[in-house]
Amino acid sequence: DYHTEYEWSDALRGKMKAVFGIDNFRLCQHGVCNANMDRRDIICVMPTGGGKSLTYQLPALFVSGCTLVISPLISLMNDQILHLREAGVEAVMFTSSTSKEEAREIDNRLVAMAHGRSGSDADIKLCYVTPEKIAKNKAFMPLLEKLYKARKLERFVIDEAHCVSEAGHDYRPDYQKLNVLRKVFPKVPILALSATCPPKVMQDLMDVLQMKQPLHHGDRAGVDGTVYFTAPLYRKNLHYSVLPKPMSHKEMMNAMADYIMKHHADHSGIIYCLSKKDAETVSEDLSERRIKTGVYHADIGDSQKETLHQRWRQGLVKVVCATIAFGLGIDKGDVRFVLHHTIPKSVQGLYQESGRAGRDGHDADCVLYYRPQDFTRLSQLTVQEKGSRAKIHDILRFAQTLTECRNILFAKYFSSSSQISMSSWSTEEKGALEPCGHCDNCTRGSDGFVRRDVRLPAWQILRVAEVAQQTGKRFTINQLASVARGRSSGTSSAASKGKGKEKAGMDLDEIAGGAVELSNDDVEALCVDMLINGYLKEEYHSQSYGINVYVVAGAKAVRLSRFSREDIE
Ligand code: ADP
Ligand code: ZN
């Protein structure tokens, strides 16, 4: 078990204090350092700000060769190098922005190391490179081979390792090329680091990097598999909540502006939007409300992006309105709030994006604005993505619940999707399964919502969906809700011009015993609930302007619709 004391543990602590000024290990740092000293392949999943860097920087000080760190983030690399040099550790970086002279000097030093010529003081302990360097720079591999032959290549560290997988949402093609590492340097152990790593991504990562078969950190003796570490996902400084999203755009902007002014008037924050256009609109509309905003998405030019980063760091821009393209490069610790203008495509996305708040450990707010209609938009956007249905249903479940602790929801989501069973978590990790006590659902209290028996309205909604299906009408979820409430659905395909109960071309009295008597919000929420529980299902129809998603009676619906209205009453 790597979570115990080893012969080198005292020395580790000593150097940790002397070089980095750190007194105690956090989370699974000690375990990862142990496995690292033991030259194992390691996967380490720790939340952002958890202290992943220490897990390779500290062991690197105990070996004579060089640890090669592959990271996609030049700005973060810069910070690390400065930090390390201040601490007196020989560290260099080798990127597209390295000058020819610098590159030659680093080159010479590495060659000298390979020939055993440099005094050990001058030896490079940590060399940071971008994946492009491995994938595209022809001169670099021979240099590594020299080091390897001289046994001066100690370890590969792959930062942001989820970038290898197309299933993750930060996919980088150059990461695929990292498969040469194991091929060319079979004896060099690999440490893969990430803040989120669902099973599909983990599998891709193991395949691409050709890591050894995984073992949990409990197994050690004589077996040489990859050791897997996971720290609790729970970050106690993040306060999660889901707020109802107002119907109109204008009301929504007012609500957001009010929220920011009230809670974070002078703080830095991020607003994640579903599309580039949304990001621009939200930025404009908030700046009209006297909030200093900036925009970031894939179509913004590189120099503009750089300017934005600078202005944001200097505090000239307070709130960045962005798509998920704004992520990897953020090296700002004091992000005090992350708002989601629209539900993201997955719980993983929500966790990762909102996790950019509070990296400095101080309190931060993570707010998701949710209204059921956004489901339709999200569905249309992701129709063609494999596995997107299940992910959307998970995020809807997250958004709709009023009772379960947000942090427990995250913990369950990530543990059910992980190959590690709960029982093998350490007690500290299990702590994440206690209600956090400070998210919206923990603080809501039982008078924060009303419980209702919805069997009758559910049956009525289902009857409408069923009859619509039989008569060839198509409804989106909000259209279904308004028709079931006796309102016109507002579409030419479904709405007739008739009056009263026949507005939607359906006699509600006849098919459903009348209209559903709940508010629009409630009926929509109920429809979403029925969808994620299999009573309604989605159907796709391509139209000239894209793919539309409609809902029809689903798998379990037939069973429910066999009840008559009287049975339910
Ligand atoms: P990550 O890469 O996991 O996002 P970092 O390695 O950048 O996190 O560490 C985040 C911050 O936490 C850094 O400022 C680092 O110095 C600090 N840190 C790391 N480990 C510890 C520890 N054991 N005790 C106190 N601070 C730590
Ligand atoms: Zn909670």
Task: Describe what is shown at a glance.
With 569 residues, this protein is an alpha/beta fold. It is built from 25 helices and 16 strands. The site of adenosine-5'-diphosphate (ADP) has 13 residues, from loops.
Task: Give the key terms.
elongated; binds adenosine-5'-diphosphate; single chain; 41% helix; 25 helices; 8-stranded parallel beta sheet; 569 residues; alpha/beta; 6-stranded parallel beta sheet; binds zinc ion
- The coarse overall form would be elongated
Q: Name the average pLDDT.
A: 86
Rounded to the nearest angstrom, the radius of gyration is 27 Å
Range of strand content: 5-15%
* Helical percentage: 40-55%
Measured distance between first and last alpha carbons: 59 Å
Question: Bound small molecules, which ones?
Answer: adenosine-5'-diphosphate, zinc ion
Please give the number of β-strands. 16
GO molecular function: 3'-5' DNA helicase activity; ATP binding; ATP hydrolysis activity; DNA binding; four-way junction helicase activity; metal ion binding
Main location: nucleus
EC number: 5.6.2.4
Protein name: ATP-dependent DNA helicase
